[in-house]
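To the wet lab folks,

You asked to see what we're planning to order before we commit. Fair enough. Below is the target structure as tokens, and below that is the sequence we designed to fit it. If anything looks off to you, flag it before the synthesis order goes out.
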């Protein structure tokens, strides 16, 4: 005989929600033990509050989880490391409590990313140190919460006495945290950087030179000021010689400026 899952016969040949007659106190007591508050999850896994009735006889755990998702219209990704088999009857529980019950019995971890319910073995849990670079931890934490990535069951915290961030949890959770951090780092690096403050004295203004040619005379101006004059000595010497030999205006009878000065 092939082992298979058998749905509760009181609900026909298919899995159903029901058992509303189950005592509320019993349901509340079981849920309090095995269910986690919905606020501890990342993207909220919205499941009915009614009980999930599922009778199993020696069924593969992975197949039971896949059928659980099929009944709830949720995509389920079960790791290949989930290899146990379910034997015996499981109690009638709300779906979230049912999922947590399987996780507790078979050492599983589950994480819902808003699209897919990922179920892995606890042996696959990862711990990774991330380098936040220019991103403050507070910004990373607030972004993870805003994107419904954060999950209080799994750790994201600054490593003591370092500039690193420690993340621990199932592979899908760790991957989403790392992708979020990489996106924040890329965004920070793409921001325009303010002009760096100058160190030391300001640079000297650029010098300007102007050369003026006037006849045989060349005059050079530097930054608007006279720098040098060339070619005027020859004409000045000739004029001085005329004054010395012939006096003023070339008249030999007129004393020269040189003679008057004596």
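Sequence we intend to order:
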């Amino acid at each position: 005989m092939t082992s298979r899952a058998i749905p509760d016969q009181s609900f026909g040949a298919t899995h159903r929600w029901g058992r509303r007659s189950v005592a509320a106190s019993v349901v509340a007591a079981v849920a309090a033990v095995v269910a986690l508050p919905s606020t501890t999850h990342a993207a909220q896994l919205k499941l009915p509050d009614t009980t999930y009735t599922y009778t199993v006889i020696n069924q593969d755990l992975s197949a039971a989880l896949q059928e659980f998702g099929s009944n709830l219209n949720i995509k389920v990704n079960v790791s290949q490391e989930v290899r146990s088999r379910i034997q015996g009857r499981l109690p009638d529980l709300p779906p979230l409590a049912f999922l947590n019950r399987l996780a507790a019995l078979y050492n599983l971890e589950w994480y819902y990313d808003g699209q897919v319910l990922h179920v892995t073995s606890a042996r696959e849990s990862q711990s990774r140190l991330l380098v936040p670079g220019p991103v403050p931890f507070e910004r990373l934490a607030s972004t993870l919460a805003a994107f419904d990535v954060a999950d209080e069951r799994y750790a994201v915290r600054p490593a003591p006495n370092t500039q690193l961030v420690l993340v621990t949890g199932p592979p899908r959770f760790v991957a989403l945290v790392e992708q979020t951090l990489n996106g924040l780092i890329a965004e920070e690096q793409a921001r325009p950087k303010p002009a760096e403050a100058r160190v030391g004295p300001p640079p000297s203004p650029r010098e300007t030179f102007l050369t003026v040619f006037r006849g045989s005379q060349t005059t050079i101006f530097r930054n608007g000021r006279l720098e040098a004059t060339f070619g005027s000595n020859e004409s000045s010497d000739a004029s001085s010689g005329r004054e010395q030999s012939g006096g003023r205006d070339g008249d030999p009878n007129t004393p020269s400026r040189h003679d008057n000065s004596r």
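Structural context that might help your review: DSSP finds seven helices and 15 strands in the chain. The CA atoms of residues 233 and 239 lie 10 Å apart.

Thanks,
Computational group
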